[in-house]
Amino acid sequence: MLGRVLIIDDNPGVGQALALLLSLHDIASVHAATPEAGLAVLAREPVDLVIQDMNFSADTTSGEEGAALFRALRERAPDLPVILLTAWTRLEAAVQLVKAGAADYLAKPWDDAKLLATVQNLLELGQNNRELARQREERRERRLRREALAARHDLRGVVHASEAMGRVLELACQVARADLPVLITGPNGSGKECIAAVLHANSGRAQEPFVAVNCGALPGELIESELFGADSGAFTGAHKARAGRFEAAGAGTLFLDEIGNLPLAGQVKLLRVLETGRFERLGGSRTLSSRARVLSATNADLKAMVREGRFREDLYYRLAVIEIAVPPLAERRDDILPLAEHFLAGRATLDDGARDALLAHAWPGNVRELKNAIERATLLAAGGVIGADHLALPPAVPPAHRSLDEPSREAVVAALAQAQGVVSRAASALGLSRQGLYRRMDRYGLQADPASH
Ligand SMILES: Nc1ncnc2c1ncn2[C@@H]1O[C@H](COP(=O)(O)OP(=O)(O)OP(=O)(O)O)[C@@H](O)[C@H]1O
Ligand SMILES: [Mg+2]
User: In CATH terms, are 4-128 and 331-452 the same topology?
Assistant: First the structure.
């Protein structure tokens, strides 16, 4: 259903004819025989467009009544499009009202095709405007939420504009003060360590140390001594007693990165610290206690590792009391351009082609890949303007596929121009839903009006 039209005309024949014509084209209508009845309908029901007569009393042809009705409609609904119907001998009054803001006028007897085209275009324009207003409102709400979060918390400079990342940060801030372990999951380079930093900065331990250990960087025995420390002679080469990271973290935060790489022996010891707060250095007999909060991160599927017997189930549940999943960059495309601008830091600017290329890329390496791409392009860009060539991003999906899934900015512009700005037509040409096309238009900063490109 394209919309709902209010017909205000004292002639029932006109009302019926228009209602039939519109209903044949999937447009609902309601008929009112007097200006008062029309205004009453408007006050009570949703109306997207008005078609109004200019004269309502049999003995008047001046158009005064029509003008008064038009003004009354304007007053009540300034943005409601109004089409005037008028005798072709009395066009002047209608022309005046079009100057005063009426959408259009048609002479009686009207031409069905022309009237229909006018109505369809106006209804569609109204839908476009409502959709754009909705998107603007959504962005505004997101921005307000972002500002509110940033005002109350230390976000450690984490850039975010997407709904998904907003939720991740809200959750992180919410659980930061709880003294519970948090497991941060997500693919490579998605920002897991950034989230760990936010958790620490907003905890009651922000003044205590933040100690990060990469469990994937060291082989089995070394990672244990790294975590728990070693007394002299604990193993070959351990000449001096050495404190581990649990001790170094004190009452602060211990961040165990790539926890999926911790060997089973280490997992047992870690589980014990989490359960009892107690541990011993390797080769040591004295029992030490830990007050550190443990955060961990992984890009592995720990649950699958549990099923395969490679990760202890009891440890998994200890670590993942709270789980924060950082989505891949491809699932939060609204973050791409703000992140790019952040990494550019004003050293260069992006041209339209570069923006399109950034938005179209799949980012398997996530934010880290984006950061590297921007660094490289900044070096290569002459004159401080980065083009798609400087980014040198490999096409992520086969081009044939892409034209269906992700139309380029040019494709969207061309389709809109072809469809003379009629979004539903452009959408079907691109094989998208109307909503889908609106999302792309929003992303590419396009308006429905083809004249504005
Ligand atoms: N939202 C963000 N805002 C600003 N910088 C970010 C953001 N997300 C990630 N980064 C930057 O991108 C890089 C990768 O992020 P980070 O190290 O946190 O990812 P990771 O998920 O821990 O990666 P890995 O799985 O490889 O350990 C870092 O330089 C980080 O500062
Ligand atoms: Mg990391």
Answer: no
pTM assigned to the model: 0.74
Task: Say how many Å lie between the CA of residue 168 and the centre of ligand 1.
Answer: 14
Per residue of the chain (453 residues), what is the pLDDT tens digit?
789 999 999 999 999 999 999 999 999 999 999 999 999 999 999 999 999 999 887 667 778 899 999 999 999 999 999 999 988 778 888 999 999 999 999 998 999 999 999 999 999 999 999 999 999 999 899 999 999 999 999 999 999 999 999 999 999 999 999 999 999 999 999 999 999 999 999 999 999 999 999 998 888 878 999 999 998 876 666 678 889 999 999 999 999 999 999 999 999 999 999 999 999 999 898 999 999 999 999 999 999 999 999 999 999 999 999 999 999 999 999 999 999 999 999 999 999 999 999 999 999 999 999 999 999 999 999 789 999 999 988 765 544 444 445 788 888 888 888 887 778 888 878 878 787 888 888 888 787 664 444
Residue nearest to atom 28 of ligand 1 (CA): 368
Residue of the nearest CA to atom 12 in ligand 1? Answer: 368
What are the pocket residues of ligand 1 if the criterion is a CB atom closer than 6 Å to any ligand atom? 158-160, 186, 188-194, 257, 299, 339, 342, 367-368, 371
Q: Are 265 and 224 in contact (CB under 8 A)?
A: yes
Please count the residues of the chain.
453
> What φ, ψ does residue 316 adopt, rounded to 5°?
-55, -50
CA distance 291 to 283: 21
Q: How far apart are alpha carbons 419 and 23 in whole angstroms? A: 23
Give the CATH number of domain 4-128: 3.40.50.2300
Indicate the CATH number for domain 331-452.
1.10.8.60
Task: Confirm if 192 and 326 have CB atoms less than 8 A apart.
Answer: yes
CATH of domain 153-327: 3.40.50.300
So where are the chain's domains? 4-128, 153-327, 331-452
